[in-house]
Amino acid sequence: MDKSIFAPPAASDVTLASGATSVNIINSDPNYYIIKINYSRLDTGYAAVPVKATLKNSAVQNGETFHIPVKLFEAGKNPATDAPLASSNDQFVAKAYPVGITSPDTSAVANNNRKSEYVSDEATNATHDRLSTDFVSTLSGFGYSGPANTANGGVSLVPAGTGAGMDKRKVQFKITLPTTAVWDPSLPNNSDWTYNSTDRTITQTVDRGLATIMQPPFSLKWDGNQPVTLANTWTKITMQQVTTLVNDDGTLDASTRRSGEIYYHVSYVRRIRIRKTLLGDKGNLVPRDADYKYNYLVSVDQFGGTRPQTASSVKFRMIEDEPQARSLLTGYELRVRPERFTATELAKLSHNKLVGSDNGTTWTTIATNITPVQVSNATDYRANSVATTLTTPPEYRYFRLVFDDDITISQFEEDAVGLIVQTQLTPATHTAYINDLNAHVNDVYWKLVRNFGRVRDAAGQELGYSIADAYIRNPFASMHLQISE
After folding, report:
1. For a Cys staple, 389 with which of 216, 331, 336, 373, CB 3.0–4.6 Å?
2. pLDDT digits 0-9 by tens, 385-410
3. Neighbours of 315 (CB within 10 A)
4. Which element (helix H / strand E) includes 286?
5. Nearest to residue 420, comparing CAs of 370, 464, 484, 369?
6. What pTM value is reported for the model?
C-alpha cells in the first residue's frame, strides 16, 4: 500500500481465512507498506481475506483513482525477483468531502461560525451606539470537511470515529464584507487576503495541510456607521462566505462550492457600573417588624467591560435610589474609596445635595454638602451602617444625590463611591403587606420589596441601573424525621 496515501497498517487489520497462519507487516520499503500473509495450504474454491486499509487525510482528492497490487508467491520464492503464481491490481476511486460551514446560526454548533464580543467605551463613538472608526475587530472564516448539506448549502458534521474524509486540495475562502466595514490591508492577518472593492469581497486560498477545521483570520475597521446595542442585547453582523476546492492547475472545482454565513455578534458594555445591594449578613430575607430599616448601598464604579489597556475614566452626576413604593428615609451616608479618584475629583464629592421626590420631576432638598466617609477596604465599604440618622424621616418615592459638577472616576476597579440610603416601609405599606401575609398563613408565601438604583449624567440620562430585592415571608417550621433501628 502506497505510504503517501495510506496510514500504517497493523496485523489486526487482516482477518485470516482458512489455511492462513500468520501476518507480517513489512515497513522497510521506502514507498510501500507490505502486508505479508502466510498460508500453510490453499483450499479449493474462493477464500476471501479482508484487509482494512485507512486512507490518510488530505492524501487524495475526490474522484482520484489509486491501486492496491496483490501477488501470490510459492513458499521460498523471492517476491523481488521471482514471478508470482497469481496477481491482481485492483483500482479504487477516492471519495473525499468538500469544505464548508457546518450549520446555520440557529444550530447547536453555530459557535463554530459565530464570534460574540463585548466592547466598551474606547471601542465606540461618543454616544456609544456605533463602533468607533479606530476599533479593530479580529474575525475569521470557518471551514470544515464534511458531506455536502443540500438543505443549507454548507456541509454536515461527520459522525465521530468515521474520519473527516478530507480532500487534499487547497481551499479558496471568499467572504463578502458588510457595507459598514473598512478594509485595511496593513492590519494584522490581512496580508494574505485579496480585496475586491467592486463586490466588497476578500479572497484567500488556504493550504489546509492536515487541519480538519480551517479558520483563516482577518481584521476589520468600521466606517462609524455600524450600530452597536447595549448589553444584554446583541447586534448581529452577517457576512456571506463561499468555499471552493482549488485544482492543482489553479482552477476552481465548482462542484465543491459550498456557501454559508459567518456572524459577528457585538454588544456594548458601559465602563461605568452601578450595583445596588441590601447590606447585612441576613441575605435578602427580612423580618416582618414594622420598624425594620433597610440599608441599601447604591455603588458606582468603573468596572464594566474588559479591563482597558490604557488609562480610562467615566463620568456621572447623580446617584438615585428608587424604592418600590413611597418610603421613609431614616438615614444616609456617602461612602468613598479615595484611591479611585484624583484629589480634584475627591474634593468635588463633598459638593452635593440629597433630594426627594414623589413624581421624579419636582424635587425637595433633604440635605446639602454631605461629607463622604473615606474607607480603605471592601469590608468597610459594605459596612451595614449609616453616618447620619433622621429623627423625622421624610417620605418620598425617589431619593437622589446630585453633585454640583460631573464626577470622574479614574481608576478601573470595584467600589468607587456609594450612597447608602436607610429606608423604612411606610405604615400603610407595611400593614398591607402583613395583612396579605396573614391571609396566606398556612402557605409558603412572601412579599417582594424591590428597589432600584440608578446612575445618571448631568442631563438626567440613565447610565445604568441595578435591582436589589428583599423578601418578607411568613414564619415557618422545618421538620426532619429520622428513623433509627
Report:
1. 331
2. 999 999 999 999 999 999 999 999 99
3. 15
4. strand 285-286
5. 370
6. 0.75
